[in-house]
Write a structure and sequence with these properties.
Length: about 100
């Protein structure tokens, strides 16, 4: 299976300690695998702790521009925002969820 990243976006309207620490630009990383192990393995390979996983469906990681570059170097596939969103919707349906991003 494959690990995917969406384009970097600027979340200028979000105010949180995480944004102050890591900046306002980030993207998401997900996997279409049946288990989350491939996703967690990729996260580990780019220096992220498993505890950073976002538990929403699908489980995902938020990536800074630097971590996104590392994910791509390590084999992640870049999708357009539209294609990434469609994949998220499909994964949520498979997992019994239908909420939007």
């Amino acid at each position: 299976m494959t690990v995917f990243v969406d384009p970097i976006r600027n979340y200028h309207n979000i105010k949180s300690p995480t944004v102050r620490r890591h900046g306002r630009e980030w993207c998401h990383m997900i996997s279409d695998a049946e288990t989350d192990e491939e996703l967690h393995s990729m996260a580990l390979s780019i220096g992220l702790n498993r505890s950073y996983a976002q538990k929403e469906i699908p489980i995902h990681y938020d990536l800074t521009p630097n971590k996104r570059s590392l994910a791509l170097i390590n084999g992640a596939v870049e999708l357009s925002l539209r294609d990434f969103t469609m994949l998220v919707i499909a994964l949520r349906k498979l997992q019994g969820k239908s909420k939007s991003i």
